[in-house]
Design a protein that fits this description.
This protein has 287 residues and is of the alpha/beta class. The chain contains eight helices and twelve strands. It is 28% helix and 24% strand. The protein has an eight-stranded mixed sheet, sandwiched between helices. A four-stranded antiparallel sheet has the order 9-12-11-10, with no helix packed on it. The longest helix is centred in the C-terminal third of the chain and has 19 residues. The structure holds zinc ion. Its EC number is 2.7.7.-.
């Protein structure tokens, strides 16, 4: 407990014990996800599952505190796991080198006490929301764009879920554009997501969406009501789980690949790269 002696002065022994028994899942291990993993590891969450199929690139380093130049070309989820074990060996970390889809997402999240959204794509975010709402798992949303960000604690059937207020218009949402951001925005957003979990563990049911304009230092607290026409928490249609929406064609997509199963390897082709983990392969389409 010496490790947590200063933290115990703030959180108390009972909450520290709760953290040790906690199972959380972080979906995405880019800038936001890796920062979340580091924060959750340091505060002593007992079990962390981290999901990402991507590899570290040099263009990630300006906003990703956990990765170094030595990690370029390695799987993000595995680097997150290694680094987290170096920080706090008492924490159990499971790294899943995969992307979520309608066939695996429910299984991946269903034993979690909290799920952290560290995704950068609206389709996958709403798919994750569908799974968390269906299984009544608290979801902690974090969205980053430029010098803006927003966070929200989703408590299924108690407050607004993401599908209550985020509109998915189909394919046009999946334009393959690169959205920049800064490490200051990413780290602050991840910190606020973890703070929402701590406050909820202390009994606070926070129903607000927090919106931050860092450039102008404007922080807004927006009360959002549940939407009675919400396709997830009101109508239980779960359109993303039921494959009713077209999947994005950019970022990382699963591909079928012929040939030998030779462990982790990367192949370059004209559209981008193919990343394989054994016989499971993903195409990374350049944005
Ligand atoms: Zn809803």
């Amino acid at each position: 407990m010496e490790r947590y002696s200063r933290q115990l002065l703030v959180l108390g022994l009972e909450l520290q014990q709760k953290l040790k028994e906690l199972k959380v899942t972080v979906v995405g291990c880019g800038a936001l996800g890796s920062t979340l993993v580091e924060l959750l590891t340091r505060i002593g969450v007992g079990y962390i599952k981290v999901i990402d199929a991507d590899i570290v690139e040099i263009s990630n380093l300006h906003r990703t505190l956990l990765f170094t130049e030595k990690d370029v070309g390695k799987p993000k989820a595995l680097v997150c796991k290694e680094r987290a074990k170096e920080i706090n060996n008492e924490v159990e970390i499971e790294a899943i080198t995969d992307i979520i889809d309608e066939t695996n997402v429910e299984e991946l999240v269903k034993d979690s006490h909290y799920v952290f959204d560290a995704l950068d794509n609206l389709y996958f975010r709403l798919l994750l929301n569908d799974a968390c709402v269906k299984h009544s798992i608290p979801l902690i949303y974090g969205g980053v764009m430029g010098e803006y960000s927003s966070v929200k604690l989703v408590l299924p059937y108690k407050n607004a879920c993401l599908s209550c207020f985020l509109n998915y218009e189909g394919e046009e949402e999946n334009v393959c554009e690169t959205i920049g951001t800064l490490d200051t925005i990413v780290t602050t957003t991840a910190s606020l997501q973890v703070q929402l979990m701590l406050n909820h563990l202390r009994g606070e049911e926070d129903n607000n969406l927090y919106y931050f304009d860092f450039r102008n230092m404007r922080f807004d607290k927006i009360k959002i009501e549940r939407n009675e026409k919400c396709q997830a928490c009101s109508l239980h249609e779960f359109r993303f789980l039921n494959s009713k929406e077209k999947k994005p064609a950019c970022g990382i997509v699963k591909v079928e690949k012929e040939g030998p199963n030779n462990g982790f390897h990367i192949e370059k082709n004209k559209d981008g790269i193919i990343i394989c983990y054994g016989d499971k392969c993903f195409k990374k389409v350049s944005r």
